[in-house]
Amino acid sequence: MKQRADVFSYLSLDVSSDTLEATYALDDRRFVETVTFEGVPSLDRPEVRAVGELWFLLAGLSYYKAGAPPVVDLGETVITGSGRSLLAAALLDGLGEFSYRNDLPLDDVTFVGGHDAPLRPATVDPRRVVTPFGGGIDSVVTVASLPEDLDQSLFVMSPPSGRFAPLEATAALTGRPILRATRTLDGQIVRGDTSFFNGHVPVTAMVTMLAVVAAVADQRGGVVMSNEHSASVPNLVWRGRDINHQWSKSWSAEKLVGDAVAAAVGDGVHVASFLRNRSELWVAERFAALPDYLTTFRSCNRAFAQDVNRRAAHWCGECDKCVFIALVLAPFVPRTQLGAALGVEPTSDPARFEQLRTLVGLGDERKPFECVGDPGECSVALRALADDPAWRDVDNVRQLASLVSTDVSLPELLQPLGESRVPAAWLR
Predict the structure, then answer these.
(1) Cα–Cα distance between 428 and 426 in angstroms, integer?
(2) Separation of alpha carbons 227 and 207, rounded Å
(3) Which of the listed residues 273, 289, 306 is the one where a domain comes to its end?
(4) Co-location of 203 and 218 in the same domain
């Protein structure tokens, strides 16, 4: 049985003109992570360091999880009250799936050390923004929806093993300049160890904060995320807590990140999701109206393996992400066109029946531990296919449509849902 470590320590953050270097310790074991930026001015400025310190806190969770100790020592790290709130939530809720899968509650964790951080105001232009771009339908729709008079650059994360070809091809179609960062994890974590706990970490929160670093360095006043309304829906409840694979894409995380950034560099830097009050089906409908991207984008998990030799050159048609994307696009893209673009048709594949069943809320889990929409959205998409002559005789569609019920219609899901922090300047 694996044993928890005693203490996780934040040791240092070194900032050079183009690199952040973070050093941590798990008891006596040290870890070093580096992130190197391209296309941005020097990072070695007080306001950039201020948001770099927030990244430093979040990135530590990739190493904390290896031993999951009950004590986190912030050491000499400077941190605001909002930064402490963000870190505490990222550990407890952002590692919720990790806790659940390892049967390892983290509600006993205490934080020690740390010093109050001063405000280090950033001089930025609110009409200049950075949009983190992953090459899927979400970020494509965000980039295409922002006003043309915004000075918009993409922010792309690349692994040290080499750039992701489908992401690069999709980014090129936008015609936007790219700010880039390459993240190099400590080799001990990459290789793994039999003594380590393993599991999901809040990667999107880490990427968001790196986008803020790039934005502040380039004097951009906005970081435009692409996280939908359904990202806040939990997968399940465990020990009285919501467990959400997408916690770092949730409304709660967005507010915590926004508050922490404002406390560090002032409220001139705005971090918000353009899609926060939109459904996955609204995004799919908008994406379907951008046909140039249909044959280029890729949301298949296997296309984004860290090991370049393991990357799929096409849609696998088997992972939950493939099944979900094919399902939500099908009501808006003709069947023959969608099949030709993806090269696979998981919606009609008998081997994908159980995955579809889980997506529409009929499986053992509320929804897969994956970045997919909630069961209500998936059920509405399936019912739309059941009414489509091109799909209604497909066995998967016919069988599941007879079992699902929905309390919301497709037109209703194409309307705004819930709250949003998007400023007026980002809207047409």
Answers:
(1) 7
(2) 13
(3) 273
(4) yes
